[in-house]
């Protein structure tokens, strides 16, 4: 007997010896089914992937995180990375294993160039520690001046001895953001509760600003900090600029200090399960740390969160002096907290934060030009990808995308869990590192582009647009005001799949990047050298 399975005919003889008719054997049928199934699967894969790049972040294709063994194998005997392309490709496809994040992040954030050897990095690390300690001494000096002027918030914090009690290598951490989304009514408010009047800790954006004012012009980008000339190669300010920065900041420092302490005390503890050594800090050590930086009103906190709050205060005060144009604004503690949780030493956390703030600092300018530029970019992505959704947003006068303001300011920190946030940031940092180092345009990188998207400086914005597009049906069918969309965005917290988000963001990069991208200003790297000068990088 003859059997047809798809385009295959199977004929088998009877084993009973009773006639010449074809009988189907089990082996023959099984073989036919296997071959046919393989063809069906191959055809399905072809039809779904034809015409688009393979995303390294899809559930089907996602790789494992960079492991300690893989990390060690990437280095030559003198401590140089053998293959920067392989390193960044691995990180952007699966992130980094938790046990090596403190080693990997300085490379991703531009604290170390990819081509440095161990000896060079050791020297830069020592120099970085000295520069950080000098900034901390300046903080104590300013605190002392505030105390002498009768500032009750600063009394008891001017003793050099107090901070020496807790050495830099004793740093640990603890974080706590207000886990429930803050109210965002008329206009867009990052956070309202407990804001200090006149302190600048509450950030508004004017919904009436036109799109033309949020263009990608040079005027939409802030100036680099005075001490961060692009011609310099090290992120450490010179002593002359350092002193002038401190003098210029002295009038603002007590205000920054109040806001920093308020935000540090309120930081949440979602990092605790992922940073066990820091979670187990003793109460004695935590109290010493709090006294060293003059932290008050922490009695209701557990020891690890007191310690984390103290570290936040120390690093954020130092950064306020390092970059006095930005100083401190609410939301910066949200960005620092995961770094503090991973980096065990304050001076290393500080320089990683400097690297992170290369681009994120534009989110905290008082004129909000950096925020408007990014919201304008999200709007362009949505318009290019989904004109129907964009027209609905226009009807609601929400096409400026101010409903995603909070996502932009704190880089999804409120919408994702601690672990999800780190995964997203690591992929984003790997993209930025590829562009910063020139690897993204190399022939070696181009060879892998058939299986991965090109790197982009604005991966975050594509992810934000993707999160909105994932909810297009609800937005179009159910929502009739921007306030309702704002509530929907706030309700995303804890509901997002970060790898699906990255997969959708990749699709947007592939489909609309070239349509909306405009030339950007020249960028520079934060690389450490023996000179006591500095440099900032883009986004």
Automatic annotation (TrEMBL):
SUPFAM superfamilies: Ypt/Rab-GAP domain of gyp1p. It holds the Pfam family RabGAP-TBC. One of its GO terms (molecular function) is GTPase activator activity. Transmembrane segments: none annotated. Residues 142-250 are annotated as: Disordered. Gene3D superfamilies: putative rabgap domain of human tbc1 domain family member 14 like domains, Ypt/Rab-GAP domain of gyp1p, domain 3. Residues 145-157 have a biased composition (Polar residues). Residues 168-186 have a biased composition (Low complexity). It comes from the Eukaryota. InterPro entries: Rab-GAP-TBC_dom (IPR000195), Rab-GAP_TBC_sf (IPR035969). Residues 95-432 form the Rab-GAP TBC domain. PANTHER family: OS08G0547200 PROTEIN, TBC1 DOMAIN FAMILY MEMBER GTPASE-ACTIVATING PROTEIN. This is Rab-GAP TBC domain-containing protein. The lineage of its organism: Eukaryota, Viridiplantae, Streptophyta, Embryophyta, Tracheophyta.
